[in-house]
Design a protein that fits this description.
Blueprint lengths: L17 H6 L2 E3 L5 E3 H10 L5 H8 L2 H16 L5 H4 L18
Antiparallel strand pairs: 1-2
């Protein structure tokens, strides 16, 4: 598994848009399956060691999956605000855009 910054990927190659990449994380599995948001985050946790693997299994339970989706959306929407908690920049800022709103 490797993590790739959204700005270094041509989203069209994967049937996605720039807005898709900016809105949430994506996991592209070797089988071609695309997972996004909380599903992608839980899948990444499944591939790690304990206790994270167990946390992923808990998050996939039907009565907790809705809460995981809501928590993911809250963090994703406010991810740039977490920068203040880190002191130095721990989360890259939004990609630079020109006056037309296109990435530079």
């Amino acid at each position: 598994m490797s993590f790739v910054p959204a700005g270094s990927v041509n989203p069209n190659r994967f049937g996605l848009s720039v807005e898709d990449l900016d809105a949430q994380m994506w996991l592209l599995e070797p089988s071609g399956t695309k997972l996004s948001g909380s599903q992608a985050a839980l899948r990444v946790l499944e591939l790690t060691r304990q206790p994270w693997r167990s946390l992923a299994r808990l998050g996939a339970l039907p009565f907790l999956s809705g809460a995981c989706r809501m928590a993911y959306r809250l963090v994703a929407k406010n991810r740039y605000r977490f920068d203040a908690l880190c002191g130095e920049s721990c989360i890259p800022g939004p990609p630079a855009t020109d006056e037309k709103g296109e990435r530079q």
